[in-house]
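Batch 3, record 17
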Amino acid sequence: MEKQGVLNNNNIVGSTLVHKLAMFVVLFGFWMVLSGRTETKFVVYGLITAIVTTWVTYPLLLVPNKDGSKRYFVFGVSIPKFIMYFFWLMWQLVLANIDVLLATTAQELDIDPKVVRFYFRADNPMASVVLANSITLTPGTVTINVTDDGLYEIHALTKGAAAGVLDGSMQKKVADLYGEKFDFAVAEGEE
Amino acid sequence: MIEAFGLNSLRELIAAIFMLGGLVFFVGSAIGMLRLPDFYSRIHASGNSETLGCTLSFIGLMIYEGPTLTAVKMAFAFLIVFMANPIGSHILGKAAYKSGHPVWTLETKGAKKLVGLEKQDHSADEPVGHIRQKEDK
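Prediction for the assembled complex:
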């Protein structure tokens, strides 16, 4: 049953060939950078390794959505958009880092730790992964739980960090990145 | 002027500035680890070093190394740290949360208060470390 699901690619979002080609190019580039040798022998080894790795791991990198009607390729995201998101995230990290550094080294600890909750629903499971990872990566906020129905429970260290999570800007960016509709709500009255 | 600090070129000076910037965040991370009150807050302190401290140090090392293959390999190492570290932080936080570790807030000051699980009945006969699912109530 599971095997049939892998072979039947009707429900895969995007083109299988494009996914495999992109994965092959990335893996081969990685090989070339790590080996750093351009003799024919090593390039051919690299080509064979990249092809076999792509062939073996591609079915494992398809994640189903919640009701199992579609399957998404894990790296099936627009590269320019992702790079834009990465730099936006880096800038947020700089701001949050300075915020946490000042809060923890102030003479009186300037902290207000609490758990904040919000709902963010996305069909693509990778959107949840990227959002939860981005929140954890930002100092001052750690994702401590994500439930199946899209409830995120975040431990926030400072007032600014809690407000930053609940204003929905990062959720908007992630929804745009994965082409999802923006489904975000702050969960009230659960603390 | 630069030679007085044992540096040979402007590139080394820029690299040193980046690495010192990273060091500031590593030290801030260590201070936070010692000063913050509870487990959850201390995860945040470690986040300081794993993001900006690591980023600045790696940029400094890459500038020191110059445009070689080794610098690209350093960039890969940095990206792996960047992707893998938040997963570690999240798993630690989730484990504490699922086992009902109390959260320190300004109101409770560390009194026994369970995050999110306080509505559920945590009777004393519950074995330690048992994970309660939402459906259990």
